[in-house]
C-alpha cells in the first residue's frame, strides 16, 4: 500500500480526534480535568502493548524525558480545555502557530540564524492567527480573550514538548520515550484528581467509550503517520497538515448546525483562508 494512503488515513484520524473531543466535551464530560485524565490514561493503555512488542527498555537519561512529560501533560490539559471553550475551526488552526514558535525559540535560545524571508513567514503565521479567531463581530478583540490564550498556551506547550522529545529520543530511543512519557504524564496528572474525583462514580459507559474512541483514533493516526514517514516526509507533512476536523465541523454546521458550531459563511471563509495561509507558510518555513 502506498505511503500516501497511510498519510491520508492518518490525516482523517487526526481530524476525528478533534471532532470526538469537541462532542465529548460538549455532551459527555464537561469537567476538563476528568476528561484530560481519562484521555491520557487510555492513551497510556494503548501505548503499553505496542511498546512491549518492540521490547521497550528503561531510559538511561531522564532530565529531557521529564521535561517532555511535563509539557505533554500541559498540552493535554490545554488541548482539552481549549476544545471545551473554542470552536474546532479556531483551536485547530491555532496549532499551526507551532512552526512559528519553533523558529522564534530557535533564534532566541539556540542562536539559529533566520533569513529575512523566514522572518516574513513567521510574521504571516502569527498575523493569520488573529484571523482564525474572528467571529460575526469581525473584531480583533476576539483574539485577546481567555479561550484564545488557552489555545495559544496549548500550542506553546506542544512546541516545547516537540523540542525536548527530539533530544530525549536521541538519548533513550523512540519507544522508551513514547512509553515513559505517557507514564510520567499520567503521574503528573494524578495531582489533578481532587478536581474531579467526585465525578468518577457518575461516569456512564457512553462517556468513557467516547474518550477511549478519541484515544484510539489518535493512536492509530500516529501509527499511520509513522508508517508514511518511513517513505516520504515532505508529502506526509503536507497531507497530515490538512485541517480535516475543520472541514468536518463546517459540514456539521450545514447539516447539523446545533451539534457543534454554527457561523456565517463569511466567518468560515475568513477562518479557512487564515488556516490555509498558516499551513502554507509553515510548510515553506520548515523546508
Task: Describe the fold and architecture.
The protein contains 13 helices and no strands. The protein has 287 residues and is mainly α. The radius of gyration is 19 Å and the shape is globular. The mean pLDDT is 88. It has one domain. This is EamA domain-containing protein.
Poorly predicted residue ranges = none
Helix-strand pattern: HHHHHHHHHHHHH
Supply the helix-strand structural class.
mainly alpha
Rg to the nearest angstrom? 19 Å
Largest sheet: none
Count all strands and give the number.
0
Count of domain modules: 1
Average predicted confidence as pLDDT: 88
The proportion of residues in beta strands is: under 5%
Helix amount: over 70%
Number of helices: 13
- Gap from first CA to last CA: 26 Å
Q: Categorize the overall geometry.
A: globular
Amino acid at each position: 500500500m502506498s505511503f500516501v494512503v497511510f498519510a491520508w488515513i492518518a490525516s482523517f484520524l487526526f481530524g476525528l480526534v478533534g471532532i470526538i473531543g469537541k462532542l465529548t466535551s460538549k455532551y459527555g464530560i464537561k469537567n476538563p480535568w476528568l476528561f484530560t485524565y481519562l484521555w491520557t490514561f487510555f492513551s497510556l493503555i494503548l501505548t503499553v502493548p505496542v511498546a512491549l512488542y518492540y521490547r521497550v527498555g528503561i531510559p538511561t537519561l531522564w532530565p529531557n524525558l521529564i521535561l517532555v512529560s511535563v509539557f505533554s501533560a500541559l498540552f493535554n490539559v490545554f488541548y482539552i480545555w481549549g476544545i471545551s471553550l473554542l470552536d474546532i475551526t479556531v483551536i485547530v488552526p491555532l496549532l499551526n502557530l507551532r512552526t512559528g514558535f519553533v523558529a522564534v525559540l530557535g533564534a532566541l535560545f539556540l542562536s539559529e540564524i533566520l533569513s529575512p524571508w523566514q522572518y516574513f513567514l513567521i510574521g504571516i503565521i502569527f498575523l493569520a492567527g488573529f484571523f482564525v479567531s474572528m467571529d460575526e463581530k469581525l473584531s480583533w478583540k476576539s483574539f485577546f480573550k481567555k479561550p484564545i490564550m488557552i489555545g495559544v498556551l496549548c500550542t506553546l506547550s506542544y512546541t516545547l514538548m516537540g523540542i525536548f522529545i527530539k533530544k530525549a529520543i536521541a538519548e533513550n530511543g523512540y519507544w522508551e520515550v513514547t512509553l515513559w512519557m505517557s507514564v510520567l504524564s499520567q503521574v503528573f496528572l494524578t495531582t489533578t484528581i481532587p478536581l474531579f474525583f467526585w465525578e468518577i462514580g457518575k461516569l456512564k459507559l457512553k462517556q468513557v467509550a467516547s474518550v477511549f474512541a478519541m484515544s484510539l483514533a489518535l493512536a492509530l493516526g500516529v501509527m499511520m503517520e509513522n508508517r508514511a514517514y518511513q517513505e516520504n516526509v515532505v508529502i506526509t507533512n503536507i497531507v497530515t497538515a490538512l485541517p480535516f476536523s475543520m472541514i468536518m465541523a463546517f459540514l456539521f454546521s450545514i447539516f447539523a448546525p446545533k451539534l457543534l458550531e454554527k457561523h456565517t459563511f463569511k466567518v468560515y471563509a475568513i477562518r479557512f483562508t487564515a488556516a490555509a495561509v498558516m499551513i502554507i507558510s509553515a510548510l515553506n518555513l520548515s523546508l
